[in-house]
Specification:
Helices cover 37% and strands 19% of the residues. With 233 residues, the protein is α/β, with parallel strands linked by helices. It has an eight-stranded mixed sheet with strand order 3-4-2-5-1-6-7-8. Strand 7 and strand 8 form a beta hairpin.
Amino acid sequence: MSVLVLLRHGESLWNKLNLFTGWVDVPLSERGIQEALKAGKLLRGWHFDIIFTSELVRAIQTAMLAMTESERVPVILHEGKMGEWGKIHGKDGKDFIPVIKSWHLNERYYGELQGWDKDHARRVFGEEQVHLWRRSYDIAPPRGESLKDTAERTVPFFKEKILPALGEGKNVLVSAHGNSLRSIVMHIEGLTKEEVLRLNIPTGVPLVYDYVDGKLVRRGYLTEEGYERDLGV
């Protein structure tokens, strides 16, 4: 048996300012830093063999801060010259956790809404229209992605990269975003288009699955009190 942990990044500075963020690369707020550290404390003593993150700094920060509680050091694996010059010599793999970044795990791309204050957008475009852009399954904001579009890049990556690692008996941590993780959970849980609209993954709370006999079985959200199995859908 292996374990999959999905972790939504902590609050970012633009989350704090109530701005549409998408692919704009902004860091965690102080609250987000504390959320990541708290997640790390909940996962203290867990042995991860590989970590996947998006290309965005808030997801990378969350993984790195959480892993400060680990006995092993997370190391980002780069490509090109960075990969060549950053190659590790003189150590076996037991001392570090490889971290793989991919744009496939990036947040949903909000297109022309990126940088807009959400309340201002509601006043300009209307409450109903903004709600459709944010919460519908297949309606995209101007020049952006719908959740359906997001799933078309996250789910193939999940199948091609993450599931095989679990099949090899590796424990996997995925640090990503609300919508990229919603699309993955939709796939794992077999949620309908209507059900996934009610799914809201909280920031900084590990969502744990056991990989048993080729299937992912939900333990639930890991909290200080134990596991909360309800996904709210």
